[in-house]
Specification:
Chains A, B: InterPro entries: Homeodomain-like_sf, HTH_TetR, Tet_transcr_reg_TetR-rel_C_sf. Two copies of one chain form a homodimer. Chain A is mostly helical and 201 residues long. Chain A contains ten helices and no strands. Chain A binds a DNA duplex (33 and 33 nucleotides) through helix 1 and helix 3.
Chain lengths: 201, 201
DNA sequence: TGTACATCAGTGAACGCGCGTTCACTGATGTAC
DNA sequence: TGTACATCAGTGAACGCGCGTTCACTGATGTAC
């Protein structure tokens, strides 16, 4: 049952995207090759026509997920990004959410190639955040980068800690609410001292 | 080869502590029952004389690790805690480090019982941090709790993100250094506006 | 205190199962003429 | 354009392996008398 080259390429991409979601939901070890292929609408045997190994797909799926989380959050501005990111909706839907938050615990135990993919995803996310971060005043690029890196770690920690609590627990929600408010409050260098500046001026 | 009741109890505790370290190093799925028992100096068959299942041990080992991270950091003060926590030494030694940072990614996919154990560990850590947090001024208990919860998520995120980067990468170190400095700077409510107050006055 | 027997922590072979991976096969696609 | 053949994406059975768990067994401990 051979298939068009274009169809085969589309199938391959579909498998990567399916894997990207499933890995975020269940972790790398929680998704088998047969599971994955069935979820994508295929039988497991064809897997190795597309990928050298499960580890290879893990790297591709991670890269795909890391890139996707970027395109999902382009141009909304940093405070709104934090509102969307540090939310119950995001916490409760890891499959469609941030790959860093869903898989960085797993990534820490993976071989260097996959960690490099992760570091690359972090760098790209950082670059996107930097470009959207308006301090309302001149700020050296290094300072902006540090601020966004700090904010990202903060937000990732909030989601991950919240996800490790029982689904209906007050603590899980408290973590999100406390952290969201404080991350947003920390965004402009000194919000209370510096009244809102019209960015269109 | 039966063994003294006291010895059996000691062996059981030794298995839990060994598991606590190995799970932090390799994750719940990365440690088999046979691995674990061998590391503790036993054969695998005896495991079920002590524990009903691997899942039961996971909960006990997590509780043990979460309690341990508390006793390791009693009385050193919050800024010093951050210095020790958000460090390369901690990042590079997960087996002896914080159970939250090592396993909260795994915990998010575990059954409610284990998540409840995790939430309990977070609450206990919070209580310990609150008792050590000196704002230099009067602050409502709720505000102190929020500050410590926020700080904990921030520190956990920094370690986890750093661990997901390649071992020798500049980004891994940058994350730690940037976050450590900023977390510490954020500790007193307004460090720049409020010069050091002699706490002995 | 000494003796006989039950208990049970620890051993190591064995179990069923699911995993990642391989392979012979199918049949539509792609290609050479 | 039409024909003959090679290619190869996808199928599904099979592989070896390691996992969590079970079990008959051992022999020192604990207990009853």
């Amino acid at each position: 049952m051979r298939v068009t080259k274009a169809q085969a390429q589309a199938n391959r991409e579909h498998i990567v995207e399916t894997a990207s979601v499933l890995f975020r939901e269940r972790g790398f070890d929680g998704v088998g090759v047969a599971d994955l292929m069935a979820a994508a609408g295929f039988t497991h045997g064809g897997f190795y026509k597309h990928f050298g190994s499960k580890a290879d797909l893990m790297a591709e799926a991670a890269a795909n997920g890391l890139a996707q989380s970027l395109t999902n959050n382009v141009g909304i501005g940093v405070p709104e990004f934090v509102n969307v990111y540090v939310s119950r909706e995001h916490r409760d839907a890891p499959g469609g959410g941030c790959t860093m938050a869903a898989l960085c615990g797993d990534a820490a135990r993976q071989p260097p190639e996959l960690k490099a993919t992760f570091a690359n995803g972090i760098e790209n996310t950082l670059a996107a955040l930097e470009s959207q971060y308006d301090t309302g005043q001149e700020a050296p690029q290094q300072e902006v980068r540090a601020k966004m890196l700090d904010m990202l770690a903060h937000a990732v920690g909030a989601i991950m800690l919240s996800r490790s609590c029982p689904d209906d627990s007050a603590l899980a929600d408290e973590i999100l609410e406390v952290c969201r408010a404080r991350i947003i409050a920390s965004l402009p260098p000194a919000p209370a001292q510096q009244p809102a500046v019209d960015t269109e001026s």
